[in-house]
Design a protein that fits this description.
The complex is a heterodimer of chains A (397) and B (168).
Chain A: H1 2-7, H2 9-42, H3 58-68, H4 79-95, H5 116-126, H6 128-137, H7 141-164, H8 166-172, H9 177-182, E1 187-188, E2 192-193, H10 205-218, H11 230-233, H12 243-268, H13 286-303, H14 308-329, H15 331-360, H16 366-396
Antiparallel strand pairs in A: 1-2
Helix pairs in contact in A: 2-12, 2-15, 3-12, 4-6, 4-12, 6-7, 7-10, 7-16, 8-16, 10-12, 10-16, 12-15, 13-14
Chain B: H1 3-24, H2 28-48, H3 52-77, H4 89-116, H5 118-121, H6 131-140, H7 143-165
Helix pairs in contact in B: 1-2, 2-3
Classes of the chains: A mainly alpha (397), B mainly alpha (168).
Chain lengths: 397, 168
Amino acid sequence: MSEFIAQHPIIGATLRSIVALVLLLTAVAYLTWFERKVVAHIQSRWGPWMVGPHGLLQPLADALKGIFKEDPTPQGADKFVYHLAPFLSLSLALSSIALIPFGPQPLLGVSNVNTGLLVLFAITSLSVYGVVLAGWSSNSKYPLLGGLRSSAQMVSYELSLTLSVIGVLLLVGSFNLRDIIANQQGHYWGIVPRWHIFAAPLPQVIGLLCYFIAAVAETNRAPFDLPEAEQELVAGFHTEYASMKFATFFIAEYTAMVTVAIVASLLFFGGWLSPFPDSWTWTHYFPTLFCLAGAAWLVWDGLRYPTKFGRVLLPILGAVLAVVGVLCALGGVNEIVQGPFWFVSKVFVFLFIYVWVRGTLPRFRYDQLMGFGWKILLPVALANVLLTALAALVLKR
Amino acid sequence: MSIELFLFFLFAGLAVLGAVSLIVMRHPIHSALSLIVVMVALACLYLLIGAEFIAAVQIIVYAGAIMVLFVFVIMLLNAGEEERTNLSGMARYVGVPLSILFTLQLAYWMFRASAQHAWLQTAPPGPPTLMRDLALRLFREFVLPFELTAILILVAMLGAVVLARRES
């Protein structure tokens, strides 16, 4: 079996892509739940809680609702482009997962591309079309305005996005994502990880800030969500879309969020690398500890949950998590789990910040948005490139 | 047929189809979309000959930036469908035959050349060109043309700003 797969790399790649896609889509579904919960708590509400315990089945209910809703096409819409736009958005957003390595083992990741980061930016730069074409083809005023705003915004912020990572590239000298992570291995003074955010010639703090701000704008999220500003444009570019096509835009947006979080953790926070030195072997049991703590909380919370369903489901989930935790302590599994565990933890932190920003900051005005992008973000990102280049040069001499 | 050859014909066909539809389509947005298809198909062809960097840059610059501006302008002007006019007599009786002749001639000479030179027949897929080598050549051997192009683009940008600012 394994020989057969080794002979036909296409089969292995297909299997890996399917697994990656399923995991990604599940993560995206629960990201919507997570965002609604966190934003609700920021605003002193409960968020979804009716469908399943703690609203855990809400994504499923949303998907069902999306499938069964009526799906009208607006009069005078350009039919071909109208149907193409959501498909384009989703397929571009999903295809970027093919470039991401999840752990040091070559099997953890779909592909290993020499110019990985560049290809990732190429995919990002195309994703504007989904939004623009959706806005144009709907034959309606608000979507058109949303699409126009979006194209201007994404073209402006893409420059800063690309410039902000050049600092990192100067330190690494490669576009390969695995090389970029390998460059961050090790620790200063045996304790501070050599992640690019702490890198020696010039810590890439400015780069990270620029990257994150530009990426939030690039994914059309608050406070840069002008293309879908509810108070001005109803729902912006996807006003005329209903049912699964609307859901497709939704999934694409959240997938883009996940990609941004992944790239941020890869470039600046060492990807799958543990923050602790290798010699601290007890840190290898963090995944187990984490799972057991989560399991304990699930059981404790589940047993006193008001509904019967919750009293059954939550402890079962807890038990499953406990088994996973114990498995993670076993030798071989423990080794494999290290990379993905730290990777997912870092990505999760970024996603939380994303949601936190959305729950806290008010939206920019359009002229402020453009002014900020061109007059502040771009020069700062450029300055970061120059400073990093100088620092790298001086250190090499 | 090897998979490379199959992919080559797939993307080459896509590029030609996109180019034809660019001319045939009556709505400017559809034409712009066809042009994007051409750009992406060309990028895939670059990938096939191992030019990863050029492929990525092709998509980022042409499909991702220039064509977005095209679409933006078309949307902003709200350009409608074009009227189709009849071909002028000159185009019908001189232009069309000449262009067909030119294509045939081009195909013939390419065929002749590939029959004579072995290196044209088997374009080696080889290992992908390293970006390091590309950068070294660009910034050592070709640094003067490179910088001159940069200045040219800067001048063009200044000109655009001046033209846009003329009224105020």
